[in-house]
TrEMBL record:
Keywords: Cell inner membrane, Cell membrane, Cell projection, Chemotaxis, Cilium, Flagellar rotation, Flagellum, Hydrogen ion transport, Ion transport, Membrane, Transmembrane, Transmembrane helix, Transport. The chain crosses the membrane at residues 32-58, 172-192, 198-220. PANTHER family: CHEMOTAXIS PROTEIN MOTA, MOTILITY PROTEIN A. NCBIfam families: MotA1. Residues 4-93 form the Motility protein A N-terminal domain. It comes from Cellvibrio fontiphilus. This is Flagellar motor stator protein MotA. It is found in: Cell inner membrane.
Length: 285
């Protein structure tokens, strides 16, 4: 919703302001200028990135229309899942969860948290480090260090697509100038013609510069920021898991270990202590 609202505000203010000053909004509709600017920018992105990144940029269009799934409800389920797993290890020993982490799809614990189970990467991350804990051959600080290295790599990889989009945004004003120069070249060929025709050609050339700047700062750069925000939200989920598992390895009881994870969350999505307790009780029914 905020993406659509933002687009309406940007276009409404720019085109509306232009119309209020007596401009004809139709004068800004120049498909050829859009083709030159957007086509050249997309081609430059293809040159500068592996094919997988370009495909990722195209696929990211769907992410722009969906809100982040990492909300308070998601974290209530995640923290409760971790509590259930750690509580089972405390009561029955680490070996008791071996079946759960080897086949989480059939695990009665994971089955209670369908939204978490749908996220293959989150589940894999949890199970991988629980396997290490079950093996019992790694110190807590070593586990934490390994997690930090993996999360650093994950964040770098996840930031590649937003970074490619940001680079495209940075190049759009330049390609707007290219479109404007091409328009000036065409205008120079009309020197000596009717003044109205020359004026229209100059105006069309200036539209290229306008569109390049508008697309860059009004749309593409904000799209990149939105996707980068999703990367940040996902990274915080992994940090939450890391805090809980490291605390558990240091001998902290399950309910306190989960508090370590709750405290690293942003306030806007952090469940309260009371909400988490109520979720524990609800999951036991």
């Amino acid at each position: 919703m905020n993406i659509i609202l933002g687009i309406i505000v940007v276009l409404g203010c720019v085109i509306g302001g232009f119309a209020v000053h007596g401009g004809n909004p139709m004068a800004l509709m120049s498909p050829i200028e859009v083709l030159i600017i957007c086509g050249a920018s997309f081609g430059a992105m293809i040159i500068g990135n592996p094919l997988s990144v370009t495909i990722g940029v195209i696929k990211s269009g769907g992410s722009l229309m969906t809100p982040s799934k990492f909300n308070k409800v998601f974290y209530l389920e995640l923290l409760t899942l971790l509590y259930d797993i750690l509580n089972k290890t405390r009561r029955e020993g680490l070996m008791a969860i071996e079946g759960d982490i080897e086949e989480p799809e059939t695990s009665p614990i994971f089955a209670n948290y369908a939204s978490i189970l749908k996220d293959h990467h989150i589940v894999e991350f949890i199970c991988d480090y629980l396997r290490i804990m079950v093996a019992g051959n790694m110190a807590p600080h070593e586990l934490e260090s390994l997690m930090e290295q993996e999360l650093e790599g994950h964040h770098t990889e996840a930031s590649v697509v937003p970074g490619a989009i940001q680079n495209a945004a940075d190049g759009l004003p330049g390609f707007g100038i290219v479109a404007a120069v091409l328009g000036v070249i065409i205008t120079m060929g009309k020197i000596g013609g009717p003044p109205a025709e020359i004026g229209a050609a100059v105006a069309a050339a200036l539209v290229g510069t306008l569109l390049g700047i508008l697309f860059a700062y009004g749309f593409i750069a904000p799209f990149s920021s939105y996707l980068q925000g999703k990367v940040r939200d996902e990274g915080r989920a992994y940090e939450c898991i890391k805090a809980v598992l490291v605390a558990s390895m240091n001998g902290v009881p399950p309910q306190v270990a989960v508090e370590f994870g709750r405290k690293v969350l942003f306030h806007s999505v952090r469940p309260s202590f009371k909400e988490l307790e109520e979720q524990y009780r609800a999951s036991k029914k």
